[in-house]
Amino acid sequence: HGRKRGTTAGASDFASLPALGQPVTLPFPENDWNSYIYVADLAEEIYQLSTKPSLAYRTYNTGGHTLSAPQLVALVRELVPGAQISLSPDKPNSPFIYRMDDQRIRQELGCLLRPMREAIEDHLEEVRRRDSCRRS
Predict the structure, then answer these.
(1) Spatial CA neighbour of 92 closest among 46, 40, 26, 41
(2) pLDDT tens digits, one per residue of 1-27
(3) Helices marked H in 52-89 — which ranges?
(4) CA 30 → CA 79, 89, 112, 135, distances in Å?
(5) How many Å apart are CA 27 and CA 95, to the nearest integer?
(6) Which tens digit of pLDDT belongs to each residue from 99-125?
């Protein structure tokens, strides 16, 4: 939550804005697919790889949870009833890779990714905590 720059800076808006009671328009159409990884899971993978005495490979792909746009919207609406989320039918599909072979990292470390629902719940908690601190 709160990222302002970079190619995927708006990636957290899908949950951050609804958590704050604000509408969000996602910058991709309904037939889009994306792979999402929670920042804490990525940090854990980097930590685990960097502290292992030896690694089987020089490079690793980290996967994520691949969801269609409607699946993402439905999941957020389950967690934030009444969330106002719309898609952008006139925009192109996301240019990002959403099918990634993460077999190496899973073999090396096991699965460190929390379920997508849990990651969004954690994200929502963080947004609400920061917002309540800001208002205090």
Answers:
(1) 26
(2) 777 777 776 778 999 999 999 999 999
(3) 69-79
(4) 20, 7, 29, 35
(5) 11
(6) 888 999 999 998 779 999 999 999 999
Q: How many C-alpha atoms does 8 have within 13 Å on its Cβ side?
A: 14
Per-residue CA distances from 48 to 58, 83, 92, 134 (Å):
14, 36, 36, 33
* pTM of the predicted protein model: 0.87
Unique residue bearing structure tokens 């037939």: 31
φ, ψ for residue 85, nearest 5 deg:
-125, 125
Q: How many whole angstroms separate alpha carbon 73 and alpha carbon 20? A: 16
- Per-residue tokens: 42: 């990525």
H or E element: which one contains 36? Answer: strand 33-36
Alpha-carbon gap, residue 69 to 74, rounded angstroms: 9
Question: Residue 26 corresponds to which tokens in the numbers above?
Answer: 């996602």
| Single-letter amino acid code for the residue at 51 | T
Joined together, the tokens standing for residue 117 give 């629902």
For 53, the token pair is: 């005495």
Closest among 129, 27, 18 to 75, alpha carbons compared: 18
